[in-house]
Amino acid sequence: MTLPNPLARRLFLHLHALAEPPTGPARGDALQALIDRLGFVQLDSIATVARAHHMILFARRQSYRQDGLDPLLARRGLFEHWTHDAAVIPTRFFPFWRHRFRRDRPRLLARWRGWQRDGFEDQFETVLARIAERGPVSASDVGEDETRGTGGWWDWHPSKAALEYLWRVGELSITRRDAFRKVYDLTSRVIPEEILAQDPGDAATIDWACSAALDRLGFATSGELAAFWAAATPAEAQAWCHDALAQGRIVEVRIEGADGTLRRSYARPDLVEQGQAAPEPPSRIRILSPFDPALRDRNRAERLFGFRYRIEIYVPEPKRTFGYYVFPILEGARLIGRIDMKARRDLGTLQVRALWPEPGIRLGAGRLGRLEAELDRMARFAGCERTAFDPGWQRDPV
Fold this sequence. Notes:
Blueprint: E1 2-3, H1 5-15, H2 28-38, E2 41-42, H3 52-60, H4 69-74, E3 78-82, E4 86-90, H5 98-113, H6 124-134, H7 158-168, E5 172-178, E6 181-186, H8 187-190, H9 193-196, H10 202-217, E7 219-220, H11 222-229, H12 234-246, E8 251-256, E9 262-267, H13 271-277, E10 285-287, H14 298-305, E11 326-331, E12 334-344, E13 349-357, H15 365-381, E14 386-389
Parallel strand pairs: 1-8, 13-14
Antiparallel strand pairs: 2-4, 3-4, 5-6, 7-9, 8-9, 10-11, 11-12, 12-13
Helix pairs in contact: 1-13, 10-11, 11-12
């Protein structure tokens, strides 16, 4: 079975809620349903325009506002933990993280012992007792008499390291964020009791992780299934594919890339029907976060869309091809370019520094009009009153 590239793109975008107009409600149950559909929304602290999680949701529902997640977190519809990175995840999936907690406990303990966090293990009981007695804490609330490092995660003070470890293994949970700073509480006080009581076991968790990933990706290799939640190892995902194939739950397929090459993958038996039923994405332009679910697997995005994207935050400025934090631009079922922009809230301006179209993309009057309309919407979302353009902002394709 071969899925042509146009159908592969349509299906992939449809499963990621990008093949429909970005309209409709974006609060309460409607927002919860959208996040359930995506599986998770990655968190990121960089707010060049807006933080990644807000941009991800705005790209799909432009009625979304940046306080929209708070009620879902408060009513415990979402919890925060790791997939491939920090993310907000539907709380009903929490039981499947128990497998990860068991797996990660000895591995993290051994690794963190080697990072010179002297005494962080000694703080486990102290930290847990303090939270149990006095309530939620942030890293700044503990370890008052400890030496505080000046570096990154490898230089935390012992109590901060203890907090993070206890969260990673499930004994603590994030109850909220204050100015994006984590606030930790006992998991028993964050996760609802009826969900906390569930433990599906390792085998059921691996089955769920691979099956739920496939339903959100549409087609995938075993490695892509493993990477989606990072809940199953590559070997576990490979074994799941072998068994599911024998049971007829999945089939082997070939997915055509943007360059015409074929890649073997796994999919549900009705893959072609799914592709044919997927709607044609509207021509409206959307600006995506660098951490959008449709782009987080950079290699997959490059195969499907012919769009090579690498974030250049850690690249020295003279060596950057584009810019510090450049946003991909989606038009219909194509990624047509990338844009360097920054919200200058002090000036009330969304400042556009540069736009690089992809080769073969012409910036005609109609396309520029749609782009400027989207930039104006993005400016308002970011708390700016206007959009401004640097001289020479329209660049040649690279």
